[in-house]
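Researcher: Please predict.
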Amino acid sequence: MSTRQVLCSNYHQPVDQSFCDPDEKPATEQECTTAPCSSVNNRQRINDQPYGYPKDPGRHPGHNSWNVPSTDNQWRTGPWGACSSTCAGGFQRRVVVCQDANGRSNSYCDERVKPAESKSCNSGPCPLWNYGVWGECTQSCGEGRRTRLVVCQRPSGERLSDYNCDILDKPLDMEQCNLQPCVGSASWHRRPWKPVR
């Protein structure tokens, strides 16, 4: 059995494990094998030659056997960005780069274990405006006003701040009522006397 240390790092700096996805954590233990690893031999060939010079110049470097992922190269992930939507399904993205043991950019990481660069988020339903019944009018005639409660809520009933709902769709919470003139409110108004011409 062999062991290794696995650290959560962000751009070459160790950070708390809570910043990394636990489902993507590499193994810390493995069974030892006595058979020689072919990838070690292939990786050794990288160190024997300058970058970009395969032993057989007639073969393209991208197809040469020394172009294999090295165990020293690892995928590094940045923090997840903000969700593109607050509800009804959005996406989060993060930077995923291949680096060697010294933190330098590298092109040869195992694509089969590359961490995800995006994931879905905030898939729950959007909050909606909910409103109660109109209250009593402030006057029985002559332009009164009445109000009602209008709130932004999740389908579960949780109340939210108004900015979580579409403000353009907000129902009225106040309106005029009993606009008819009051009976007996009409009266005569006198003006000063004027001489007849």
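Model: The CA atoms of residues 9 and 87 lie 30 Å apart.
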